[in-house]
Amino acid sequence: MISAIKMHLQGIKTGLAVRMAYRADFIISAFIMLISEFFGPLLTYLIYNNEASLPGWSMYEVLLIQGVFLLSKGISFPFFFGIVWNTLDRVQNGTFDLLLIKPRSVLQMVIVTGFDSEDLGKLIGGLALTGIALYRLPRPGLSEWVAFIGLFVISLVVMFGFALILAGLGIVWIGNYRVYEIFSSIANFGMYPASIFSKSLQTVITSVIPVAMLGFIPASALLGKPYENTLYAVIISFMFLFASLLFWNTTLKKYTSSGG
Amino acid sequence: MIIKVENLTKIYKTYERGNTFREAVYSLFVRKPKYVEALKGISFNIEKGELLGFLGPNGAGKSTTLKVLTGILFPTDGKVDIMGYIPWKNRKKYVAHIGAVFGQKSQLLWDIPPIDAFYLNKAIYSIPDKSFKKTMDYMVDLLDVGDLIKKPTRLLSLGERMKFEFIMAMLHNPEIVFLDEPTIGLDVIAKDRIREFILQMNKEGVTFILTTHDLDDVERLAKRVIVINHGQTVFDNSIDALKNHLGDKKVLSVSTHSPLPSLEMPGILVKNKISEYNVELELDVAKLELNKFIDYINKSSTINDLSVQSLPIEDVMKDLYS
Amino acid sequence: MIVHKNKPKNIIYRQIDILKATVLATYKEWAAYRSHMAISIFVGPVTFLVQVFIWNAVYSTGNTVSGLTLNQIITYYGVVTIINYLTYDSADWNLQMLIQTGKFITFMLRPVSHCYYAFCQKLGHRLLALWVEFIPVYLLFLLVFKINLVPADLFWALISITLGFILMFLMNYCIGITGFWLTKTEGLRRAFILLRDLCAGVLVPLTLFPGFMQKILFFLPFQFITYVPTRVFIGSYELAGISLPIPYVVGMQAGAVIVMFLVYKLLWFLGIKRFTGVGA
């Protein structure tokens, strides 16, 4: 366990060192990473600025959902979502094999070598957006904070599930960087209040592919108006993680039987 | 015996997918499987401390074998036992004992100095501080790269990089090291340096399995050679046996003062008749001894110049690869 | 060396030969990756679906946004999506990779302008996208989402989309040329794409921006990539409070293409000077 933590820390250190070789481009890229995440909040702002609204939600409430979503991305993208491009890249150029000759699990190796420092920009953006939204909203109480933190951790679980599915796709679908788009198109559903979607779609985003967990559910808990199916979504989130682990292992097995 | 391979078989299953629109749509529904037999049951043993050349033409099954032996790929059938491990079953435990250098796949990190990549490997293999430093200092010294270790990798020459690849692969003191085209693209001096390093480490007890197309590497390093072709072993013996594989033959270039006599006799194969006075030929010493041949020519035509060389190893390989 | 093995052909025939060969080669090269492209059939409609729900919710309270009806705004997003399939390109990335990997030198040895070659590549690539992305998504929007995807005036719509196609290419190509000066350009490239999409009206119709922003956007070339072709397709143009007849807007678009072409010529001249001066 200690050796695994040591390894991950060394991986982060190395990842930062690699990116620091081109400081200027790193800073620009991290900044772009942050800006590109603001398309959603910008749309929200423009809607409310044009004197329209999403019924039942104030602008800062919607921005809080999007801030939490960005926060979840800001933690998962640098620290583990990098397994997606790392796998894609390595399978395409043949260096995935190099991970298989290391005395660690392949998943651990793709995480360690996939630390993505640029995406730390998202974390800063997430903190800023959540902070701004919270500043304009009534202070949440302790129980809201506790519920939020618990649900936020589960949003990371869902993120990890997505990362595994995309990385698994990257093994079988060689060189297809567009798998990211699959994620971002679906994840869009988690950035808005679930109430704007149709009933059947709400069921899908909470109990089939729990994207609502990525922003909407934890944010609602923090706002003190928890979503009715929260508990159900929590259970589904873990099942989602389990299913994605299964998928990752299946594609990995396929790789080791066909040699990529 | 450190490596035992028995009847290793690998069959790949691929799918045909068409190029035209119709075929593309069709392939969405019905996929025609295609089976490719990459390894058709190969067997061999390797002793501890050997330096083995593992050769074969492109597509012979070399890299498939290497992948199975390093635990990357699992075979369709057959047994492999390396130091008591089955590579693809006890992969994590097994690979802690092996190292690999790929001439075409760098394990270093392009933008940062080799030393940083070494530290990452130290964490991955959980190498204790003391032994890490000792091994690294020893090998850095042996390859004379002490002043380069903190330079960004992208600024190093190919030869310098390859030296660090070797250090990277051997920091955890592996008992077996797999080398895949380790000298590809290197200049003669760098090649020499790498070869000396391999020989030195081999002397210290490391088993090497060398895959290469560079026959110089093989002649200079390997004591034993395995050649595979079409997924089967076609040769497994010492390097000397390999050189004599096509019989004990010599390549001669002869020039004489008067026109050459008839060369149509057993044991002589004329390769290139340049003129009446000058010929290049291959002599099978088993059928016609060298001194008898020289006598014969000298008597009739008086030798002006003569060079004798053994058959180049390329010719043997061409024969085995065909 | 073979000099003029064949009789020197008419220059136009020669260019057409190059065009046909390059378009076909690019088409075939990318056809192997058509499954990557087909991801759009999923991504496009899903992203669109979110927009549909957002705007339905917004309009459910009886509001109108910047004078557009719900139907108009949804049609806008639908048209933007499908026009992007027709005009998308990655000329910036391609050129920057060629320069960074040193492969660009091989194009200096070919008797054909790289820009022309890259444009032919785009044609081939989009030809494939026509049946892999455009047609399936068009049919989905038309039949499943029931969006009115019939251009107000086919003639002007085609011209405007073609001009958008060329402008997008020239702009991206110019960004690619910056690779002659900058070694690491990924950050800059992404920044530009972001700015371009935002100012071209991919995120929201430009009329939703605050008034002063609209005035700035009106004078920037980005609106001619996506916003103008989309508005021409729908049949009415308005930005920064200015309504213009369609032929007039398309004329302005043509002007933007000419200006961009001159910018390309200048940048290329400077870039090549630097490339050959510094050496590869």
Automatic annotation (TrEMBL), chain A:
Q: Which UniProt keywords apply?
A: Membrane, Transmembrane, Transmembrane helix
Q: Which InterPro entries match?
A: ABC-2_transporter-like
Which segments cross the bilayer? 26-48, 68-88, 145-173, 204-224, 230-248
Q: What is one Pfam family matched by this protein? A: ABC2_membrane_6
Output the PANTHER family linked to this UniProt entry: INTEGRAL MEMBRANE TRANSPORT PROTEIN, SLR0610 PROTEIN-RELATED
Put simply, this protein is called: Multidrug ABC transporter permease
Write down the species.
Acetivibrio mesophilus
From TrEMBL, chain B:
Domain of life, per the record? Bacteria
Q: What GO molecular functions are on record for this protein?
A: ATP binding; ATP hydrolysis activity
User: What positions does the domain ABC transporter occupy?
Assistant: 3-255
Q: Which InterPro entries match?
A: AAA+_ATPase (IPR003593), ABC_transporter-like_ATP-bd (IPR003439), ABC_transporter-like_CS (IPR017871), ABC_transporter_ATP-binding (IPR050763), P-loop_NTPase (IPR027417)
Which terms are listed as keywords in the entry? ATP-binding, Nucleotide-binding, Transport
In Pfam terms, one family for this protein is: ABC_tran
Instruction: Output this protein's name.
Output: ATP-binding cassette domain-containing protein
From TrEMBL, chain C:
Task: State the superkingdom.
Answer: Bacteria
Organism of origin is Acetivibrio mesophilus
Q: Name one Pfam family in it.
A: ABC2_membrane_6
Keywords, ordered alphabetically: Membrane, Transmembrane, Transmembrane helix
Kindly list the residue ranges recorded as spanning the membrane: 37-58, 70-88, 127-149, 155-182, 194-213, 246-267
Stated name of the protein: ABC transporter permease
InterPro entries for this protein: ABC-2_transporter-like (IPR010390)
